[in-house]
C-alpha cells in the first residue's frame, strides 16, 4: 500500500516546521519521541493476540475471535539502508526534516478555538517575562550565543545550532551523545539546513502578508491552548531551549516561508494523469499490493474454558438453534444483536475486514473458504461456537489505479515543489555572502 511516510517537502521549510512544532509536541520532542505522520489507511485492522482475545471475550470487552496483531504498516515510499553512525546521523536529520510544511499549517488551523474574551498568551507572557529578564543578561554572555555563521549579514549562533540539533535528534530518535565524527557531520548537516532556512526566509520576506502579526499570534495561541497551564507551556518551550520570543520568531519564519512556497511553487505545481499512471505502473508491485482479506460478521455462543461437557453441549445446541433461525430467514444482524455474546453484537456481529493470520485457526479456515453472502454452519473454537456470515471479500492483488491516483498526484506535486525550492536555495547559495566564524 502506498504510503507518504517519506515526505518531499524541502529541508529548509521542514526544519522551520520542526522548530515550530505545535506546543503540545514540544515535550515529546525533548523526550525523544518521533512525531507521528499520517499514512495511507490499510486493511486488515490490527487485532489482539489469542490469549488477550480470550481474556477479553470472557470479560465481554472485545470481539472474541482475533488471534494475533497485524504489525505490518503501509510500505514507506523509500527505505533507508543501514549506514555507519556518522552518515546515519546526518541522513536521519534529512529524513526527519521531510514533513509537509503546508500540511502543518493546515493542522494548526484546525486547533481548538481560543477564548476571544482574553488574550490566551497574556498570562503565559507575564509568567515568562520575569524569567526571561533574568536570563537575558546571562544569555548575552553565554558561549551558546557566539556566532558560528553569517548569512548575508544575519547571524546564526551556537544556540541556534544546538537547539536545531537537539530537536532534530529527538525527532529522529537518534541516541546521544554521538561519536566525535558523527557529531561533526550532524552539526554540519544542521548548519547547512539553517543556512537554507535563512536564505529562503530572506527571499520569502519580500512578499507582503497583510495580516502576518495576527497569523503569528493566532498560531502561537493555538499552541498555548494545547497545555493545561501557562507553566506547562513555558516548561515545554524550555525543554527545547526556546523562549516565548523564540516561539514567535520561529512562527513568523514558518508562516512567511510557507506563504512563499505556496504562492511561488505549490499553487503552480500539478501532476498529470499520465504522470500518475506511469508512477503507478512502475511501482505497482512495491507500493500498491493488497493482501487477501475477508469481511465477516458472526454470532457467538461463548463457552468458558473450564466449562463441563454438559455446558458445552448446551452451548452448541443453542448455536444450532440460532443457525436454524438465520437459515429460516431471520435477519443475521438482528439475531447477532439479540443473542451473540461477543461485543461485536452491538454492530450486528460485524468484525470488519481481516487478513490471514488474524483470527483463530478454526474461524479463519471457515471464513476464507466461504463466498460473499454465505452463512457457515456452527464453527467451534476456543471461544465457543460461531455462526459466520461473509459480507465481502478482497482478493490479493494490486490496488486499483482509480482508488489511488489522487494520492499519487498529490505526492508527485509535492516532489515537484521540492525540486523547485531546492533549486532556488542552491541558486541563492551561489550569490549569498556566507561567512563561517
TrEMBL record:
GO terms for molecular function: isomerase activity. Residues 1-27 form the signal peptide. Keywords: Isomerase, Rotamase, Signal. Its EC number is 5.2.1.8. It comes from the Bacteria. Residues 48-59 have a biased composition (Basic residues). It is an enzyme of class 5 (isomerase). Residues 28-44, 60-91, 98-113 have a biased composition (Low complexity). Residues 291-392 form the PpiC domain. This is peptidylprolyl isomerase. It catalyses: [protein]-peptidylproline (omega=180) = [protein]-peptidylproline (omega=0). Residues 28-117 are annotated as: Disordered. InterPro entries: PPIase_dom_sf, PPIase_PpiC, PPIase_PpiC_CS, PrsA_foldase, Trigger_fact/SurA_dom_sf.
Amino acid at each position: 500500500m502506498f504510503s507518504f511516510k517519506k515526505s518531499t517537502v524541502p529541508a529548509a521549510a521542514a526544519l522551520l516546521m520542526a522548530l515550530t512544532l505545535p506546543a503540545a509536541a514540544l515535550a515529546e520532542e525533548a523526550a525523544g519521541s518521533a512525531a507521528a505522520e499520517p499514512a495511507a489507511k490499510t486493511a486488515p485492522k490490527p487485532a489482539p493476540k489469542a490469549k488477550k482475545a480470550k481474556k477479553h471475550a470472557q470479560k465481554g470487552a472485545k470481539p472474541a475471535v482475533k488471534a494475533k496483531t497485524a504489525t505490518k504498516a503501509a510500505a514507506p515510499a523509500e527505505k533507508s539502508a543501514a549506514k555507519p553512525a556518522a552518515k546515519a546521523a546526518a541522513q536521519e536529520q534529512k529524513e526527519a526534516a521531510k514533513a509537509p510544511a503546508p500540511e502543518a499549517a493546515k493542522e494548526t488551523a484546525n486547533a481548538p478555538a481560543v477564548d476571544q474574551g482574553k488574550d490566551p498568551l497574556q498570562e503565559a507572557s507575564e509568567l515568562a517575562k520575569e524569567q526571561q529578564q533574568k536570563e537575558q543578561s546571562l544569555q548575552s554572555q553565554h558561549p551558546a550565543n557566539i556566532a558560528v555563521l553569517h548569512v548575508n549579514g544575519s547571524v546564526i549562533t551556537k544556540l541556534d545550532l544546538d537547539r536545531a540539533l537537539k530537536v532534530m535528534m529527538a525527532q529522529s530518535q537518534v541516541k546521544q551523545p554521538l561519536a566525535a565524527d558523527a557529531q561533526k557531520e550532524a552539526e554540519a548537516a544542521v548548519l547547512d539546513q539553517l543556512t537554507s532556512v535563512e536564505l529562503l526566509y530572506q527571499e520569502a520576506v519580500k512578499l507582503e502578508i497583510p495580516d502576518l502579526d495576527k497569523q503569528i499570534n493566532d498560531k502561537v495561541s493555538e499552541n498555548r491552548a494545547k497545555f493545561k497551564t501557562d507553566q506547562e507551556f513555558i516548561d515545554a518551550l524550555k525543554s527545547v531551549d526556546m523562549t516565548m520570543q523564540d516561539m514567535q520568531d520561529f512562527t513568523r519564519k514558518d508562516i512567511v516561508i510557507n506563504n512563499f512556497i505556496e504562492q511561488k511553487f505549490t499553487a503552480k505545481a500539478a501532476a498529470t494523469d499520465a504522470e500518475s499512471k506511469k508512477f503507478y505502473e512502475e511501482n505497482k508491485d512495491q507500493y500498491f499490493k493488497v493482501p487477501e482479506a475477508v469481511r465477516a460478521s458472526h454470532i457467538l455462543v461463548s463457552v468458558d474454558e473450564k466449562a463441563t461437557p454438559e455446558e458445552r453441549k448446551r452451548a452448541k445446541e443453542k448455536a444450532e438453534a440460532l443457525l436454524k433461525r438465520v437459515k429460516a430467514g431471520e435477519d443475521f444482524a438482528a439475531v447477532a444483536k439479540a443473542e451473540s455474546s461477543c461485543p461485536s453484537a452491538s454492530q450486528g456481529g460485524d468484525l470488519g475486514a481481516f487478513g490471514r493470520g488474524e483470527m483463530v485457526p478454526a474461524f479463519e479456515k471457515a471464513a476464507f473458504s466461504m463466498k460473499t453472502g454465505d452463512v457457515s454452519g456452527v464453527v467451534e473454537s476456543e471461544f465457543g461456537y460461531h455462526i459466520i456470515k461473509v459480507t465481502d471479500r478482497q482478493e490479493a492483488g494490486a490496488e486499483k489505479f482509480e482508488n489511488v491516483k489522487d494520492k499519487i498526484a498529490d505526492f508527485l506535486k509535492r516532489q515537484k515543489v521540492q525540486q523547485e525550492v531546492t533549486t532556488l536555495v542552491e541558486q541563492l547559495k551561489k550569490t549569498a555572502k556566507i561567512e563561517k566564524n
